[in-house]
Design goal:
The longest helix is centred in the last third of the chain and has 27 residues. It is built from five helices and no strands. It has one domain. It is about 80% helix and about 0% strand. Helix 2 packs antiparallel against helix 3. The protein is an all-alpha fold. Keywords: Membrane, Signal, Transmembrane, Transmembrane helix.
Length: about 120
């Protein structure tokens, strides 16, 4: 009786497992953020860092860590020996350069605003 219940549970969980595995069949381009989204992130992080720097000089540093983790995951995809060439083939070299530039700005702007505010501390 117990074995029948386990068998029935495994049959019920099989469609759920297939549903969870569906994104695996997507191409590489679907997993990367579009360029417009990257630039919206840059503008949002810059605005948030500026507002935070107006309150305290060190507050933009709180934005920097999650931003650095996001940019590291983005760049890690480009550096991967399997995913990197697939991204360059599907999205083109211009996307990779644009994502690198947006990532660099996302990393530099909070540090720059914190430094400006720290040096002008009243």
């Amino acid at each position: 009786m117990q074995a029948g219940r386990i068998y029935r549970l495994s049959l019920m969980s099989f469609p759920a497992a297939l549903f969870l595995a569906l994104p695996v069949h997507a191409g590489v381009a679907e997993r990367e953020p579009p360029p417009a989204e990257l630039w919206i992130f840059v503008i949002g992080i810059a605005a948030l860092s500026w507002v935070m720097a107006c309150r305290r000089w060190w507050l933009p540093l709180a934005v920097w860590l999650p931003t650095a983790l996001f940019v590291a995951s983005l760049v890690a995809d480009f550096a991967d020996p399997v995913i990197g060439p697939a991204v360059r083939e599907e999205l083109g070299l211009a996307y990779v350069l644009q994502a690198d530039l947006a990532g660099a700005l996302m990393l530099v702007v909070p540090l720059m605003l914190a430094n400006i505010r720290f040096s002008r501390k009243d």
